[in-house]
Amino acid sequence: MAWTEADIPDQSGRVAIVTGGNGGLGLESSRMLAAAGAEVVIAARNETKAAEAVAAIRESVPEARLSVQPLDLSSLVSVRAFVQRWLAERGALDILVNNAGVMAIPRSLSADGFEMQLATNHLGHFALTLGLMPALQRAATARVVTVSSTVHFGGRIHFDDLDGERGYSPWPWYFQSKLANLLFVAELDRRLRSARSSVAALAAHPGYSATDLQFVAGRARGAAAEQTLMSFANAAFAQSAAAGALPSVQAATDPAALSGEYWGSRWLGWFGAPARVGRSGAARDEQVAARLWEVSEARTGLSLALS
Predict the structure, then answer these.
(1) How many domains does the chain divide into?
(2) In a domain, 238, yes or no
(3) How many Cα atoms within 13 Å fall on the side-chain side of residue 280?
(4) Is 168 an annotated catalytic residue?
(5) pLDDT at res. 213
(6) Which domain covers residue 236, as residue numbers?
(7) Which of 114, 205, 240, 284 has its CA 20 to 30 A from that of 60?
(8) Which residue stretches of the chain have pLDDT < 70?
(9) Of 168, 174, 208, 262, which residue is the catalytic one?
């Protein structure tokens, strides 16, 4: 039987952070969690758009408990500031949805000198999750959900050229970042289980959903023909952003969803209600996951501390 918004368990008393909750999948995830009773913190780089998202959610969920916190995932300074504020001012964290991302952009470097897609999509969320672990451990049954993509099947980790200094191409380095998301979840799950932690780590993907992300990528590269094609494809084939957000929300709230699992659209990984889905052989490679974890620790200066 298809899992729908009506199946979201009561989230009253729970606190959630959704990165990139100001638009697309993140906005829908924020709306669903708020409608189920959770207090939702939208963590976003653009505070004006985040405030607009709050207003939009309150139109359909007037009683929604929402707030906005600034967060630029491409900057470790910004991530560190977010974490420090949270740990100083807030208590337990029940749900962290690592949703924000950039896609197929021209090569650029983050403030820390890392390729922007890897910095934003993986390293920022790696640092955020490890930094917030004390708050997650204070919750009875906390969950971290990291949003990947079906395109991870085309990805590989370019350990010899992570930042694309010698062979950058927008799409392969996007695929790399989405594969990194799944490898992060696999290694985080392994470490949490080893420590017998109550925190669960899951992954999700939205299938083929209509969001602004595709157009932002095309505009960044000046790819007008690609944007036209994407507009047609979205209108003809894509499911809604709400449908695309459901796997993330189910992974975050359904007691039947277990740590280490990957949730996505059930039909060919592109459409339909959420279901447990498979991942590539590369995403299941434990040695690559461990190596990426070590690289991520070195780049962020963080390691996982479990009490």
Answers:
(1) 1
(2) yes
(3) 22
(4) no
(5) 58
(6) 11-300
(7) 205
(8) 209-238, 266-271
(9) 174
Q: Is residue 180 part of a domain?
A: yes
Taking CB atoms within 8 Å and a gap of at least 24, the contacts of 281-288 are 282/152, 282/155, 282/156, 282/157, 282/179, 283/152, 283/179, 283/182, 283/183, 283/186, 284/186, 285/183, 286/186, 286/187, 286/190, 288/157, 288/183
Is residue 4 a part of any domain in this protein? no
pTM over 0.85: yes
Q: What does the pLDDT read at residue 237?
A: 46
- The residues, ordered by sequence, that sit 6+ positions from 37 with a Cβ below 8 Å of its Cβ are 10, 11, 12, 13, 14
Cβ neighbours of 72 (radius 10 Å): 20
> Residues, the chain, total?
307
| Tokens describing residue 284 | 């299941």
- Determine, yes or no, domain membership for 242: yes
Among candidate residues 102, 124, 99, the one with its CA nearest the CA of residue 111: 124
What CATH number corresponds to the domain at position 116?
3.40.50.720
